[in-house]
Amino acid sequence: MTPPAVLAPAVSLVIGSGSVKCAAALGVMKVLSEAGIAIDRVVGCSAGALFASLVALKYDTVSAIDITLQTWTKDLTSKPSRIGYLRLLAPKIFGFKPDNFALRDDSSMLERLHSVFGDRRIEDTPIPLHITATDFATGDLVEITRGRIVDGIRASLALPLAFSPVRLDGRLLVDGYLADPLPLSVAMKHGSGVIVGVGFESPYQENITSAGRFAFQLSAILANNLLKSKLAFHGMAHHSEVIMILPDFKQRIRLFDTAKVPYIVEQGEQAALQQLPYLRELLAVEQAAPRAAAA
Amino acid sequence: METSITERDTVTVVAIRGSVDSLNAEQLTTAFAVPIQAGRTRLVADFGAVTYTSSAGLRSLLATVKDCRRLGGDLRIAALQPQVERVLSISGFTSIIKIFSDCEGAVESFRAAT
Fold first, then answer.
1. Is-above-0.90 flag for pTM?
2. Residue A286 touches chain B, beta carbons under 8 Å
3. Strand, coil or helix: what is A136?
4. Which of A28, A59, A83, A254 would you label with A13, given CA atoms 20 to 30 Å apart?
């Protein structure tokens, strides 16, 4: 009788929202890869969706860093949407609708996402990919598992007020962090065992000198409280283990600190290395358990 | 992970050393259960030598704090190391469990309540 094939140990990777800090997931990916630990599923939210897509397409760390340096630059949001400001000031005259309201032009973002992902589709990635967004009508978490990667990331990155919501499959979608900044639930629902969660708290503003910063502060308060409450629930509800990777950034990371990407990746790597001995031991036990039960 | 129990009047201090995770969470739950079953429900978990806690470790703490409170006592945590405190904070635990900077303060907090 042929013995059953021995599968490589594997984890599911969930990358939360966190702007350029999500690049830390590339350091985590590197550590897992070098340790011979496979990723059986990857979930990404907001900027985490961009990195989850790179992981799902099996980019190596060096190429993924290079793509990040080229993609995540300040001019991504630097172009204002004039019609957006007019719709803000005179909504009736300029035809305000939830579908079209944005204060920033997204053409640069779409162009860059296209240059990286082209027409590649979520359902065709070598590692199963799940991108999350939020249903604007109901507030529900929406799991995007089909369609173009570009459209999924754009929906997940629909930062309120900055970028317009995206209509996909009849639903109007906004940034995934509004439903859950670290969507562990998606991996849990699909039967994942050991989950590695890469999460980030939103930074609080140092000086609030404008309405925009005021709004960012409110958003950070809500997002951080949501992160904690969701994480508490998911940690309690999961049948297996959730290993949290919380990179400790000594340097303040701003939204478009692209120059700090190598540092961010290194911090992700360091945080993952700290968890590696336990992760190895845990996966060895998890792998042995089904065989012992079957014996 | 290793645990040791000392009794300080009506308070039981469970000192924990090492990593608290799914490989030993049951062992920790059992260590807490021993005093609870003996009717000692005022517990202090001394985390001074805990280097890591995972979601399984948090589940053990939650089960214990619920048992203690149901029986009129409490579980309080002392001497958290920064990296462990971060995990407890981001998981919402610091909002439901009383945390003290040292073991003496945690023990004293029970005395103050009597």
1. no
2. no
3. coil
4. A254
